[in-house]
Each structure stands twice: as C-alpha cells, then as structure tokens.
Amino acid sequence: MTRVITVTSGKGGVGKTTTTANLGTALARLGQRVVIIDTDIGLRNLDVVMGLQNRIVYDVVDLVEGRCRLRQALIRDRTLENLYLLPAAQSRDKTAVSPADMMRVIQQLHGDCDIVLIDSPAGIESGFRNAVAPAEAFILVTTPDVSSVQDVDRVLGILEAEGRGETRLVINRIRPELVRRSEMMSPDEILDRLNVSLLGLVPDNEGVLISNSKGMPIAHDARSLPGRAYHNMARRLLGEDVAFIPLLARRKSLWERIGLGKRSKD
Question: In whole numbers, what is the pLDDT of the chain averaged over residues?
C-alpha cells in the first residue's frame, strides 16, 4: 500500500522543501521506495536541493497534459536507486495543474512505491489545494516564531475542518540558546498552542544550508545532528518509537565537562 503524505505550512521560508528532501532521503536510506513530488509550479527548487536540476527533461505539467509517461518524468536520485523526483514546471503557473490532475498522478504511482511525499508551495490557494488533494496524512513545518506558528495554525484549521487525515508537526531551525533565554518559542509552547502530534525537532545548523547549496541533503550524513533528526523522523513515520534528541538539555559548565564538578566558591 502506497502512503501519500503532503508537507506544508502555509508560510514560505520555513523549510518545507528542505524537510521534504531530507525525509525522502532518510526514508530511502531505510529501504523505502520513495517518490517526491514538487508542486510549486513556477518556483520550483526541490530539484536544486536534491542536485537534480540538470537532469530534468519532463515535469508534472508535461505528465498531466500527456506529453510524457510517468516513468519519463520521474528522475532517479544520484545516489539512492529507490528515490525519485517528479519535478514541477518552471515556466507555467499553478493553474496548469488541478487537484483532479494530482489525484490521477497519484493513482499511477500506487503500488509502484511505498511512500509519496508532496512538497506544497507557500500559501493556501490553488497550489496548496493541488498538494493536499491526494494526501492521506500531513506534515506541518514551522519555525519557532509567532508568525510561522500562526500560519501553521491556520492550515491546521483548514485540514481539521475538512476532516483530513493524520497531521504531525516538524519544528525547524531551533536555537536552544535563544529558547533558554526566552527569546524564541519553545517546542512545548508551540505544541500547547497547536495541539498537534510532534514528528521532529531540527536544530538551526549551517550544515543544512551548505548541503542544500551542494544539492546533497544532509540526511545522507546520519552522523550530523540534523541528519540524525531527519532519520529519526523517518523512523517515526514507519511506526518506530524513537526518542527525541534532547536539543534543549542544560549545557554543562566547563568544570563539569572536565570532570571536576561544580567549581568551589573558596
């Protein structure tokens, strides 16, 4: 049975595309057959994050308009044989694809892969509707700021009002030092406000930006803290009970780190 999951938020710039690429990579590394679909028509960049921009011949609009077959439009990842991208069109607008078109695309994929991840564009208009139409579950991505959380809350309200499937949350770009100083919303505050299940916490890390610019998702490196975070999310999606990385644990003092305990006041 193929699972269809849409990654969305309502707000641009919170890391939806990075989350989609890295979750897809992590799931593929765990043995899943994964297809990632970019629905941000006219503003695609998932292909760049995955390093596949030079391999695009056909896109999702070509597919729905009958200029190619599904297998011609799918691009295999450079390193993982069980990971594919269906890119968005660069020179068309979001009205080129309808929710019914997306349903037909997903029907073609059923049975040929384990998981389909759909990367939703920003906003809650036609592109959003295309992305959520065929999905049975949703991953909401937010950063720890009030405006981002408000936008996610709005999307959550839409999905709940329509009686859609399971929804889980990824909190991206957490900076523990700012949370400890109460200069950034904590995960607990965000979860209390949204009342949604947590899928994962991703620290703010320059390695993610570097990996995106190189077209090699950081989930390829499960030793890095963000890479571990994405792999843990993938394992949770597959039903495993995985502990969360303690990003907000108290930092040890110098004296504790060198084994002398608390410094004497004498």
Answer: 90
